[in-house]
Write a structure and sequence with these properties.
The complex is a heterodimer of chains A (77) and B (242).
Chain A: E1 3-8, E2 18-21, H1 25-43, E3 52-59, E4 64-71
Antiparallel strand pairs in A: 1-2, 1-3, 3-4
Chain B: H1 6-14, H2 19-26, E1 31-35, E2 40-42, E3 50-56, E4 59-64, E5 70-76, E6 95-98, E7 102-108, H3 109-118, H4 120-146, H5 149-166, E8 170-171, E9 174-176, H6 181-188, H7 192-204, E10 208-211, E11 214-217, H8 220-226
Antiparallel strand pairs in B: 1-7, 2-6, 3-7, 4-5, 4-6, 8-9, 9-11, 10-11
Helix pairs in contact in B: 3-4, 5-7, 5-8, 6-7
Classes of the chains: A alpha+beta (77), B alpha+beta (242).
Chain lengths: 77, 242
């Protein structure tokens, strides 16, 4: 199975990318979405301290498979 | 010397067996069957006429949801009896897989029933064993639904270490735990990427070593706290009646 590298912009975690084997780009995009949802959930309220977060997936040849960026805005009451 | 009867070893861990109880247990015929890693040991819908004890190896109970994703609901280590409930529930509601090469010891349901009817304390102990399994399932439900990733992984590691210790399969907070990150992902309901990052974080914090099929816990107190791990649900104290 091809390897895909997942790199997140999480300021609290080490920046090294995580490589895993997946059947293809569709599964890589699925994994990116799932990882994003889980990691944002674990960030809890801290996300709002710097409301910008990103995950980027590249394939074995260094081509970008997908980028998923989440931004937020807080509005004072 | 003949190897001791696997069911006797299990019962003797929880009960002070009388001579008669031990002799009756020893008389239960055992069929020992080897399985290769990654083979299915029992399937959802099976209607077994016998139950097994994991004599050797690591197995898991799992279910595949619509869409093809698999959830591992429990790990089974030597001494466990993952389908003992089939003694009372006709058909299996989940699959059981060998994670590593396994050796299973099978006992016919008819023999287990006869043993239990003749020796009620043994029947009670078999009941208690399945109740503890249910307690573990309850805890895993909390784990996968309410805890954050580091807690989920820490919790699973604490549980497995403690169970391995009780089974005499761990030494100095180190045990064999030959599961992959993909298995861990299916156990915790987390993506593989998230599991990988979580493991890195636990290593960097000096809490664990995990790899090459081995788990070592370097700071039990800290890992247990992170994992929200309180071992009450494992009911490790022997049964009241022993």
């Amino acid at each position: 199975m091809p390897r895909y590298a997942f790199e997140t912009s999480d300021p609290e975690a080490s920046p090294e990318s995580v490589e895993i084997e997946l059947p293809g780009p569709r599964e890589a995009r699925e994994e990116a979405l799932r990882t994003a949802a889980e990691m944002l959930k674990d960030l809890d309220g801290r996300f709002w301290g710097s409301p910008s977060w990103q995950i980027q997936v590249t394939d074995g040849e260094g081509r970008t498979v997908c980028t998923l960026a989440v931004t937020g805005e807080t509005h004072e009451p | 010397m003949r190897a001791e009867h696997p069911l006797l070893l299990k019962l003797a861990r929880a009960l002070a067996l009388s001579e008669a109880e031990a002799a009756a247990t020893r008389a239960v015929p055992v069929q020992s069957v080897p399985f290769r890693a990654d083979t299915v040991l029992a399937r959802e819908g099976d209607r077994p006429s016998r139950s097994f004890l994991v004599a050797d190896g690591l197995a898991c109970t799992s279910k595949v949801a619509a869409g093809g994703r698999r959830q591992i609901m429990a790990l089974h280590i030597p001494g466990d009896t993952p389908d003992l409930h089939s003694l009372h529930l006709r058909s299996l509601d989940s699959d059981i897989w060998a994670i590593t090469d396994c050796r299973l010891a099978y006992f016919a349901h008819a023999d287990l029933r006869a043993l239990g009817r003749a020796h009620p304390r043994i029947m009670e102990e078999l009941w208690r064993v399945t109740l503890i399994e249910a307690a573990i399932y309850r805890e895993w439900m909390v784990n996968i639904s309410q805890r954050q990733a580091p807690s989920r992984v820490a919790h699973v590691f604490c549980e497995m270490m403690l169970r391995m210790e009780v089974a005499g399969l761990a030494r100095g907070r180190t045990c064999l735990l030959p599961i992959t990150q993909a298995d861990l992902s299916e156990m915790t309901g987390l993506s593989q990427v998230h599991v990988n990052r979580t493991l890195q974080a636990l290593r960097e914090q000096g809490l664990i070593s995990f790899g090459q099929g081995t788990l070592a816990i370097h700071d039990w107190e800290a890992l247990a706290e992170l994992g929200d791990f309180r071992p009450d649900y494992l009911h490790l104290e022997p049964s009241e009646d022993s």
